[in-house]
Amino acid sequence: MGVKAIGLLSGGLDSTLAVKMMMDQGIEVLAVNFNTGFCLSDTQEKIRKTPGEVYRHDALKAGEALGVAVEMVDIYDQYWDVLTKPKHGYGSAFNPCLDCRSKMLSLAGEMRVKRGAEFVFTGEVMGQRPMSQYRAALRMLEKESNLEGLLLRPLSAKLLEPSIPEQKGWVDREKLLDIVGRGRKVQMRIAEELGITDYPSPAGGCCSLVDKSFAERLRDLFEHRPGGMDERLEREEIFLLKTGRHFRISPTAKLIVARDEGECRFLHFHRRIGWRLEAEDLSGPVALLLGEPTEQDLLMGAAITASYGKGKLDTLVPIRLQKGDEDRLLEVAPMAREESILLGVHA
């Protein structure tokens, strides 16, 4: 029987290369993608999709191109403590990168045992991520996840101590790489040599939590909800955090204004959880007012909505407000853009 390995596959360039390298060495790869609920691909799937258009997760597209099955594992429920109580703290935004990586590697280690695989591998590159991919962090993650000696990083393996798969000859160390740093030129060249052409932006990432704008919105939400960080967010709340321009109107009310057609479609169906606002007989965005708005909050939300539509220079703009079975029409003066920007939560 051949050697089996669990490979973490995000669908990005690095993890795709790692899978391809292992397959080329005759390793039977069991690819897995762990979904925390904060992946940007989810946003594209749920919000940006136009009627008749089909999006597939980057990991599934990479797996199909490589000819390897990908197991998609949702870990949102397990991830909440990682997000709100990270042992190793946060990065520059709301990203608990070390704890996140440790959790995924631990789960991959459990899968290794259950599936009868010999080792686990990833597309990590030394020095690429400042919080989680320096030498000491790589060693620490290996130890925390109970994968000492059984965790292979093919793209930087020659810069690290030989792992058990290398020592036992399951993989040829000479065919592994010594990539270091944040650049992607080496990976792009190797991808071209291996015939890998379809992959996301090499310098990108799939996690919303590293985005400072998203982080500010998330902190704002925690600060203004009764349960704070102790109350788990619904998936829909996370999607809404990724959508539109956000305005904190009052401690009990927040407005989200769509930025494009896809976001307008997405917000259009949310009047069951908040007030849907839209200009009457004028082209403009759909907006959603969440929380427990006062009458003054409704007026302000309508004024901001009016300022982003075709009537932004008009004296008065009719704004239709709907929530559940309630239906109102307000005529408001569009708020000056400079005023609305002051309310923006990274709008």
Number of strands: 11
Order of helices and strands: EHEHHEHHEHEHHHHEEHEEHEEH
- Gap from first CA to last CA: 56 Å
Q: Give the overall pLDDT as a whole number.
A: 90
Radius of gyration, in Å, reads: 24 Å
Characterize the largest beta sheet: strand count, sense, and whether it forms a barrel: 6 strands, antiparallel
From the spread of the alpha carbons, the general shape counts as elongated
Write up what this structure looks like.
The longest helix has 19 residues, at 97-115. This protein has helices at 13-24, 40-48, 58-66, 76-84, 97-115, 135-144, 164-167, 185-193, 212-223, 235-241, 261-268, 295-307, 337-343, and strands at residues 4-8, 28-35, 70-74, 119-121, 151-152, 245-250, 253-257, 275-279, 287-291, 317-323, 326-332. The mean pLDDT is 90. The strands form two sheets. It has a six-stranded antiparallel sheet, with helices on both faces. Strands 3-2-1-4-5 form a five-stranded parallel sheet, with helices on both faces. Helix content is 37%, strand content 17%. It contains 13 helices and eleven strands. Strand 10 (317-323) and strand 11 (326-332) form a beta hairpin. The radius of gyration is 24 Å and the shape is elongated. Helix 5 (97-115) packs across helix 6 (135-144). The chain is of the alpha/beta class and 347 residues long.
